[in-house]
């Protein structure tokens, strides 16, 4: 369940390079003990695409990125399936990974896509226990979980009805101008907090999905406008739309684009 906190597990593995799964299935890449562990760290945040669901460890985006850097910098994958921008923000606000991030991180990388518009607005019901943000007087405010109390009970009851899922829910999933504005503000708040709290820049690889172009247009935005707003707000944005699938070959293309931006930080 997105947002659920799993207990930490003690891990004992051989000293050779490996990818461990700890604390809610996080993948963390370690350097071989034959070389000193790099002091600087870059951190990936995101969902299943970034985590690398269905991929072998060497083919995940963060690992390919680390390989492009010749493992001269430690790269940690803090992503999790089903997550969206609001999980990224709440993790920074609560300091959930402060012990892992440590002092002087090099870069935060949050991989986003058009589907995150729905997640940021709590549209999918499977986001029901994720954090819910709203805009109040132009400011981002955390309001608990996406669904709570009677809203949660009613939605769980309705989800058991095929007629609701077929005829009503698709209309509720459509996002509005306010939903896109919320998505932008959440990402900008994350980038601002990363800079103020951790002294680190936030790089946002953005993946456009042609299926969302029309709904975004109907809501009064364009994908180019979203990217421009993010850049104007202080986030570093790189378009990786041409590699939007999860195939291992595309991890290399995405990582190369991210590496080019990384070198400018």
Average pLDDT works out at 82
Q: What is the global morphology?
A: globular
Strand percent estimate: 15-25%
Which structural class best describes the helix and strand composition? Answer: alpha/beta
Q: Rg from C-alpha positions?
A: 19 Å
Q: Could you explain the architecture of this structure?
A:
The strands form two sheets. Strands 1, 2, 3, 4, 5, 6, 9 and 10 form an eight-stranded mixed beta sheet that branches. The protein has a two-stranded antiparallel sheet with strand order 7-8. The longest helix has 22 residues, at 177-198. It starts with 18 loop residues before the first strand and ends with a helix. The chain has one domain (19-262): Rossmann fold (3-Layer(aba) Sandwich). The chain contains eleven helices and ten strands. Helix 2 (61-68) packs across helix 11 (248-262) and helix 3 (85-94) runs parallel beside helix 8 (177-198). The chain has 265 residues and is an alpha/beta fold.
Protein traits:
eight-stranded mixed β-sheet; globular; 10 strands; alpha/beta; two-stranded antiparallel sheet; 18% strand; Rossmann fold; single chain; 265 residues
Overview in brief:
With 265 residues, the protein is α/β, with parallel strands linked by helices.
Question: Secondary structure elements and their pairing?
Answer:
Elements: E1 19-22, E2 26-29, E3 41-45, H1 48-51, H2 61-68, E4 74-77, H3 85-94, H4 98-101, E5 107-110, E6 112-113, H5 116-120, E7 131-136, E8 139-145, H6 149-158, H7 162-172, H8 177-198, E9 201-207, H9 213-218, H10 223-232, E10 236-239, H11 248-262
Parallel strand pairs: 3-4, 3-5, 5-9, 6-9, 9-10
Antiparallel strand pairs: 1-2, 2-4, 7-8
Helix pairs in contact: 2-11, 3-8
């Amino acid at each position: 369940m997105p947002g659920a906190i799993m207990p930490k597990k003690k891990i004992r593995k051989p000293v050779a390079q490996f990818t461990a799964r700890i604390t809610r299935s996080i993948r963390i890449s370690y350097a071989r003990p034959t070389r000193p562990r790099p002091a600087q760290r870059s951190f990936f945040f995101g969902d299943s695409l970034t985590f690398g669901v269905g991929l072998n460890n060497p083919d995940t985006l963060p690992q390919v990125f680390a390989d492009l850097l010749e493992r001269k910098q430690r790269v940690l994958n803090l992503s999790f399936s089903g997550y969206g921008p609001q999980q990224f923000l709440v993790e920074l606000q609560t300091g959930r990974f402060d012990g892992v991030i440590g002092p002087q991180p090099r870069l935060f990388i949050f991989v986003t896509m058009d589907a995150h518009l729905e997640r940021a607005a709590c549209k999918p019901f499977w986001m029901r226990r994720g954090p819910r943000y709203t805009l109040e007087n132009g400011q981002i405010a955390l309001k608990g979980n996406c669904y709570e109390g009677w809203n949660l009970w009613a939605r769980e009851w309705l989800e058991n009805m095929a007629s609701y899922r077929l005829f009503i829910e698709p209309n509720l999933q459509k996002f509005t101008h306010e939903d896109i504005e919320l998505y932008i503000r959440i990402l900008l708040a994350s980038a601002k907090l990363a800079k103020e709290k951790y002294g680190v820049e936030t790089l946002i690889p953005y993946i456009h999905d042609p299926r969302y172009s029309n709904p975004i247009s109907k809501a009064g935005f364009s994908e180019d406008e979203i990217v421009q707003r993010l850049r104007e707000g202080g986030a570093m944005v790189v378009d990786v739309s041409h590699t939007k699938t999860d195939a291992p070959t595309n991890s290399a293309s995405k990582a190369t684009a991210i590496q080019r931006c990384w070198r400018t930080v």
